Amino acid sequence: MMNKDFFADASPGRVCRKCLLRDMPGQAYFESLENYIERLDSDLKVAPDVYERRLGLCRDCDNLMEGMCRICGCFVELRAVMKKNGCPKVHPEWYPENESGGQVP
Ligand code: SF4
């Protein structure tokens, strides 16, 4: 039977609940995702600083689990890079036009 703290331990061989894919051991899947993101049309993507700010919010979010958002089921590294995407929790800081934390339309 699995201990309830199994996923909370980030030691090698264990799954880190609060990690982005890029932070997990055995990064082959992330490298594939990263290559896919690199090939996306730059007009579709947010600026690098916006991307990192979004991912920082995901890292601090209780809904991040194994690189995936528990609300929408997306890998956050892919969701966060797209201009058209929002945070399903409606995190105002995800939106560059809402630097002040205003209401998201
Ligand atoms: S997309 Fe939003 S709700 Fe999902 S993990 Fe990131 S900050 Fe949390």
Estimate percent helicity: 25-40%
Strand content of the residues, in percent? under 5%
Give a list of the ligands.
iron/sulfur cluster
Number-wise, the strands total: 2
Figure out the total of helices: 3
Radius of gyration: 15 Å
| Class by SSE composition | mainly alpha
Query: Which outline best applies?
Result: globular
Describe the protein:
- This protein has 105 residues and is mainly α.
- It has one domain.
- It has 3 helices and 2 strands.
- A two-stranded antiparallel sheet has the order 1-2.
- A hairpin with a 2-residue loop joins strand 1 and strand 2.
- The protein is globular and about 35 Å long.
- The chain starts with 27 loop residues before the first helix and ends in a 26-residue tail after the last helix.
- The relative contact order is 0.15.
- The structure holds iron/sulfur cluster (SF4).
- Iron/sulfur cluster binds next to helix 2 and helix 3.
Write the layout of secondary structure elements.
Layout: H1 28-39, H2 48-59, E1 64-65, E2 68-69, H3 76-79
Antiparallel strand pairs: 1-2
Bound molecules: iron/sulfur cluster.
Iron/sulfur cluster binds next to helix 2 and helix 3.
Supply the key terms.
4% strand, single chain, mainly alpha, 27% helix, 2 strands, 105 residues, globular, disordered N terminus, binds iron/sulfur cluster, disordered C terminus
Describe the structure concisely for a colleague.
The protein is mainly alpha-helical. It has helices at residues 28-39, 48-59, 76-79; strands at 64-65, 68-69. It contains 3 helices and 2 strands.
